[in-house]
Design goal:
The complex is a heterodimer of chains A (176) and B (242). Chain A is mainly alpha-helical. In chain A, 73% of the residues lie in helices and 0% in strands. Chain B is 36% helix and 23% strand. The chains are: A mainly alpha (176), B alpha+beta (242).
């Protein structure tokens, strides 16, 4: 995207706006705050495209990183809301019916849903608390009353399982 | 020894403090672990696809577009035309002069640190640093006019950052130094720091073992715990240090 290229920004929004809003809503649990995250993510993209490094991966990962950090930031500034979010069910698995998408994206989405379903609940919980809750391993261990080593092992095992299933699907898309 | 147990947590942004820095430092020089972290990160970026999709409000795009138009500044307009403002053209002779000053850089460093460091005067450690040979890098306030920083990198890898002109941040935010590399390797952080009420700071930073692949050095604003990768715009930046 060229700096100041509004049409490119619109294309990015059309492609990833829904996913970013979904992610933000999952983290902050409030549509207004999620909209704030959505807007902030695209305006940060608009203000500082220099922050994107193609060597680090594709644009969606970069955008998700911005959105997630901004949402976690908002969540931490509202501790009460964070506690409410943590009581909610861990995963809402996608029905893939809302957003039209390319065939390979649908395939990847199915794979993500399937891989998450295959994770033991304790492993999925470790991943969710870290990614959607913004918790560190130490915080998760404290929260769940488990040894830190146990949480690290669960996180690693979960990520290994996800990597084994998803990386073969992601890699060709990165090279495309 | 590879920090295998912590790589997944690192990719999830769930490590902090010394553990995070240890992994960052290791990944910067270990291709095996770097590749694994890259794969983990790619996997992490797909996790939102496992959620039930929710469409944003229809008016959201209009609000983003309106704000983007409002933010379009004269600086962005010249970026698109290839015409650089006068101050940018004037930077080259200044930078040349600064590079020449490396010949006497130990004197410059001592003076600089003494002048810029908040709190007590620098002690023996800084004096020792000033006597070590190394490299001086200037970071200009690309995203925050008036701000600047000087990064002193000793040949044995020690790094010290002297900053001025940055805005003091609330407790939930911090500044973070980044080494942005080319090729397949990832951006790595040099550490986080805060400035005092005068906008000054002097911080020890971690410098990658090899600077050969570093194409830019930047400072961004991040959440207080620091980020795994830059999320804010570049407030300070140096691309001409090599």
């Amino acid at each position: 995207m060229q700096v100041g290229d509004e049409s490119a920004l619109e294309v990015l929004y059309g492609r990833y706006g829904g996913l970013i809003f979904t992610l933000a809503l999952r983290i902050v649990g409030d549509p207004e705050l999620a909209r704030e995250v959505l807007q902030d993510t695209f305006l940060r993209c608009w203000d500082g495209m220099d922050g994107y490094d193609p060597a680090r991966g594709r644009v969606p990962g970069w955008l998700m990183g911005i959105a997630r950090n901004r949402a976690i930031d908002l969540l931490r500034s509202r501790p009460h809301q964070a506690r409410l979010r943590e009581r909610e069910p861990l995963v809402g698995l996608a029905s893939e019916s809302i957003q039209p998408d390319a065939a390979d994206s649908i395939m990847l989405r199915r794979a993500v849903v399937s891989a998450l379903r295959r994770l033991p609940i304790a492993q999925r919980q470790a991943i969710e608390l870290a990614y959607y809750g913004g918790h560190t391993q130490v915080e998760i261990a404290r929260e769940l009353g488990e040894p830190l080593g146990t949480i690290k092992s669960r996180t690693r095992q979960a990520m290994e399982l996800l990597r084994a299933v998803l990386w073969p699907l992601i890699e060709p898309r990165r090279e495309a | 020894m590879h920090p295998t147990e912590n790589l997944a947590a690192y990719a999830l942004g769930a490590l902090e403090g010394p553990e995070r820095i240890n992994v960052e430092t290791h990944v910067a020089t270990c291709a095996t672990c770097g590749s694994l972290v890259e794969q983990y990160r790619a996997v992490v970026s797909t996790l939102p696809m496992g959620l039930d999709p929710v469409a944003p409000p229809p008016e959201a795009w209009a609000a983003i577009r309106a704000e983007a138009r409002r933010r379009r500044s004269p600086v962005r307009e010249w970026a698109g035309t290839g015409v650089r403002p006068r101050w940018r053209r004037a930077m080259w002779p200044v930078l040349t002069t600064l590079v020449a000053s490396l010949l006497v850089w130990n004197v410059v460093l001592q003076r600089e640190l003494t002048r810029r460091a908040p709190g007590p005067a620098p002690g023996p450690e800084v004096e020792a640093l000033s006597r070590r040979p190394g490299r001086l890098v200037i970071l200009a306030g690309t995203g925050q006019p008036g701000a600047s920083a000087r990064l002193f990198v000793a040949v044995d890898g020690g790094g010290h950052l002297a900053i001025s002109g940055l805005t003091p941040l609330p407790r939930a935010r911090t500044y973070q130094l980044w080494f942005i590399r080319t090729g397949a390797s990832s951006t790595v952080t040099g550490g986080t720091f805060r400035v005092d009420a005068r906008g000054l700071a002097w911080a020890k930073v971690i410098v990658p073992a090899s600077l050969d692949e570093v194409r830019a050095i930047a400072v961004t604003e991040e959440p207080a715990t620091g980020s795994v990768s830059p999320t804010g715009q570049h407030l300070l930046e140096s691309k001409t240090w090599q």
